[in-house]
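Page header: ASSEMBLY MODEL / two components / 699 residues total.
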Amino acid sequence: MIVRMSKVEIVGPKDLLQESIVLLRNSGIFQIEPAAVGFIEKEDQEHIRSFSLDEKTAVERLYLEDLRLKIEELFSFLPAVPVRESYIDPASIAHTIAGTVERHTGQTRELSEKRDELQKERSELERYSIFLGGLSILMDSTKEAPDLDFIGLTIKEPEMVPRLREVLSRITDWKFEFQTEPAEDGTLVGLITVERTIADRVKKTLSDEHVPELTFPASFGTLSFPQKISYVKERTARVSAEADRIREDLLRFARRWTPLYKSVRDWIDDRLALLKTAASAYETRMCFFIHGWMPSRDMVRLRNIMEEAFKTRVVVAEKEMREEDLERVPIVLKNPAYFRPFELMTSLLPLPAYTSYDPTPFIGIFFPIFFGIILGDAGYGLVLVLLTLYLRKRFRKNKAVHDGATILFIASLYAIFFGALFGEFFGDIPERYFHLQPILMERRTAIVPMLLFSLAIGVAHIVFGLILGAVNAFQRNVKREGMFKVLSIVIICCIITILASLSGTIPLVFTRPVVLIILFLTPLLFFAGGVLAPLEFLKSVGNIISYVRIMAIGLTSVLLAYTANELGGLTGDVVTGVIIAGLIHVLNLILGVFSPTIHALRLHYVEFFSKFIEHGGRKFEPLQK
Amino acid sequence: MNLEKVLIAFCAALAIGIPAIATAWAQSKIGAAGAGTLAEKPELTGTIIILVAIPETMVILGFVVSTMILFTVK
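Prediction written out in full:
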């Protein structure tokens, strides 16, 4: 149900504005309306203006915003750690914090920068370590000599090796040694040993061939390759130790100071939200005005809260709801316990307009019935009841799963009921093994009766939707729309009468007067619905035919169950038969959960609700802490 | 006599098969666009479900016609 809302104006002396907002926020039942339209009369507009903060409050706001930014900057340098709650009153330490925050930010920034530098150096060293690791193997097999030079390479494409050999042999006149070794990162590490006199020429040629020579940073100095290897190891260990020490320092700092800064930041957020809300209020020379919406049932409660706090100084008044206000009234849906889980399905749709209907009770009533008719198997229903009972118990705290399981539980009860009517328990087992006949009809063979039954459900559902739509239209004083819906209902009834008389269900004599009635009503239909009226009417007829899916989906389910039993019986062995039939039944059961749900929902969303529900409501968002 | 039955069954199959293909094609297009929309605006779930569901009417109408062919044409 859509909760009845009240249009409310709260008036009081200006100095009580902030206290009033705090009380409204704590109550959690009032949504402030920043727009003045519909609240302030035209003649009063020159005396009432948007509330502007006094100089002291404006300075406080700037100060708090600046402090918040500083705290955020400090947090950006600190690691995220789970911290305890601070029990110190944040308002009393805000000024002290303002004095320390910059110093702490400076310290942590310095530590963070140092840590980043060390991490960068460590990753560089790791890169060299990969290269030097590969080279160390090659160095072991190469003799060091003062007249020899070593050139290290990283080769990304192994195909380059023969080409490099060819180039080196040409430049050095075969006086070189070139060895390669796969590195840890998958590339190839190469070591060229040449005479020192031609080393520069070789390096230049390598550069021309786009083979990068590995250069080492200046900190490596003039160390030989073996020295470089041990230097990298030592330096990596030193850098890692230093980075770990800084990380520990930052963690210690975060654990010590984060609770305090966090509580002050939350307090600032709270205070700024209050000041921001105050900007939605209005003022005269002496008074403030707060406009908004709240559930009518809470009016007395809010009046009591205000009276208790301010006696008669702040007044809560309910204003007259005008027609133009109806589009802006926020929507609160509240349903009895049985319907509440079905709000899960309503949440997929946009909110209804305030003057429309809450779709939840309709889904709550009709969805399980449609599901039950489509699934229509007592055995499947029983399995689903047990499964949903388990899910409801297992996921008691997960609202979405719990609600979904509750919906499926109710729908499964209907599946058991209709299963009993159709004589189905895991397909045709009652008839096959116990010779029990269905109470109503056997869906597998009664195709035409089931089709007519589904159409009858469609007619009833759509006509009910049109009646609700007509009532709603007349209530909103949109008479032509209401008249169009009434005419649609009458013409649908006329068409059914014609079909019934033509099929011999009722005497044929009814046909002619009914056709005349339709001919008489058609111009009125155009008058009420405009040029597109016939199209709209045909849409309703199409909507009714769409209900045939109840029978169609049900038929596939019953045929699959029948096939399962038939195949199981053909095996000639009890165990194999039960396994085969069981597997197909499981598949059918899975399909039997999804298919009826989707199609029953579609019948509501597309066919039924389009007849009477108007969407476009906005969510009720009360002031809350 | 047998050929007549075959033709009736064939016509019934066409009556449901062609709308089924048409529905599948329409839903594939709407579904793909809908999935893209939902990635950006999850609040449109209801609208997308309705849009995806609309072409299903074709196959249901095909089913009705197919049933009529099977049970009324003698």
